[in-house]
Write a structure and sequence with these properties.
Radius of gyration: 18 Å
Number of helices: 10
Helix content: 25-40%
Strand order of the largest sheet: 5-4-1-8-9-10-11-12-13
Shape: globular
Enzyme class: transferase
CATH class: Alpha Beta
Keywords: Kinase, Transferase
InterPro entries: PfkB_dom (IPR011611), Ribokinase-like (IPR029056)
Protein name: 2-dehydro-3-deoxygluconokinase
Number of domains: 1
Distance between the termini: 33 Å
CATH superfamily: Ribokinase
Bound molecules: adenosine-5'-diphosphate, 2-keto 3 deoxy 6 phospho gluconate
CATH architecture: 3-Layer(aba) Sandwich
Strand content: 15-25%
Largest sheet: 9 strands, mixed
CATH topology: UDP-N-acetylmuramoyl-L-alanine:D-glutamate ligase
Number of strands: 13
Organism: Sphaerisporangium rubeum
Length: 311
């Protein structure tokens, strides 16, 4: 297995107006874990999504959706409970506003025991994130167990802190991050979205240094259109964003970045090259609606990289 993603796929109801006004929604499937898994699979990696989905109609549809996008669904297990969902609309400033319908979902009951049969030790790269860790104490334990198992077997652990104030608090998420970081090869906080609540800084360099101080081997601090600051004990490297041809929806750009980065690391790319591929995939994801509306293929990523001048 190249890439294993652990987390909660969600049914996505999206509207282009504020949720207080929306009465018509577009239905799709998203969530950080699904977005990353679909992106990694489309980039050519054998990718498994490890999760529990509900024993309802949406659980069945989610598995079919993931399979249709080339994801290995062997460890997408059904129920008991319901499939999580979110509604996303625009807030008055044009930013995305999320409303979750996921409390007590099947995925939030996942724990280390659900991972016992998953061959984690064979994974080249694990992708996990702060959203999963914030779902419940058992999910936090599952993330910890997966990171220790994959890392312990020589695999690469990628952790996207993805702070969500509706799921956790800055002190709780920071505590978890601090505990996990020594088991992490690459942290991918966004700045300032994650760095401000979790690392108490809006400065990308400070954020990267804070990640290394926590014990992570490297950090890729994502900065929206300003690209990525990559930091490792070897030093800093700025990787510019690939300009998007047009922007339909920002949802999932960070997840596409992480998924493709993981796929490329599993394929043997050096970290800066994998990051560049991630920025290209993110730029392509911006042109589609929702987290999985437009998913970049390996060929599209390579073509876009070839057309984007190296700094
Ligand atoms: N407007 C944009 N134009 C081009 N690339 C973008 C844009 N917004 C995001 N990206 C790409 O997606 C990556 C992740 O975006 P970012 O906003 O930092 O994270 P997140 O989506 O997790 O909040 C960025 O590092 C960049 O490569
Ligand atoms: O909030 C959650 O729990 C979700 O999973 C919703 C979204 O699908 C992703 O989180 C989007 O993430 P970005 O890549 O930061 O745009």
């Amino acid at each position: 297995m190249d890439v294993v993603v652990i987390g909660e796929p969600l049914v996505e109801f999206s509207a282009s107006v504020p949720l207080t006004e929306a009465d018509t929604f577009h239905l799709s499937f998203s969530g950080d874990a699904l977005n990353a898994a679909v992106a990694a699979a489309a980039a050519g990696a054998h990718t498994a999504l490890v999760t529990l989905v509900g024993d309802d109609e949406f659980g069945e549809r989610l598995i079919a959706f993931a399979r249709g996008h080339g994801v290995d669904t062997t460890w997408m297990t059904r129920g008991p409970g319901s499939t999580g969902a979110y509604a996303v609309g625009a807030d008055p400033s044009g930013e995305r506003a999320f409303a979750y319908l996921r409390a007590g979902s099947a995925a939030s009951r996942m724990g280390p025991a659900d991972l016992a049969r998953v061959p984690l030790a064979q994974a080249s790269v694990l992708v996990a994130g702060g959203i999963t860790a914030a779902l419940s104490p058992s999910c936090a334990q599952a993330v910890r167990y997966a990171a220790e198992t994959v890392g312990g077997a020589g695999g690469t652990v990628v952790y996207d802190p993805n702070f969500r104030s509706r799921l956790t608090t800055p002190p709780a998420a920071t505590r978890f991050l601090t505990d996990l970081a020594p088991h992490v090869d690459l942290l991918t906080p966004s700045c300032p979205g994650d760095s401000l609540p979790l690392l108490a800084t809006a400065d990308p360099r400070e954020a990267a240094l804070a990640c290394l101080r926590l014990g992570a081997r490297a950090a890729a601090v994502t900065r929206g259109p300003d690209g990525v600051l990559l930091a490792s004990p070897d030093g800093f490297e700025h990787v510019p964003a690939v300009p998007a041809t047009h922007i339909v929806d920002q949802t999932g750009a960070g997840d596409a970045f992480t998924g493709v980065l993981a796929a490329r690391l599993a394929g043997g790319d050096r970290l800066p090259d994998a990051v560049r591929a991630g920025t290209a995939a993110a730029a392509i994801s911006l042109t589609g609606r929702g987290g999985t509306g437009t998913v970049a293929t390996a060929e599209q990523i390579d073509r876009l990289l070839a057309a984007s001048p190296r700094p």
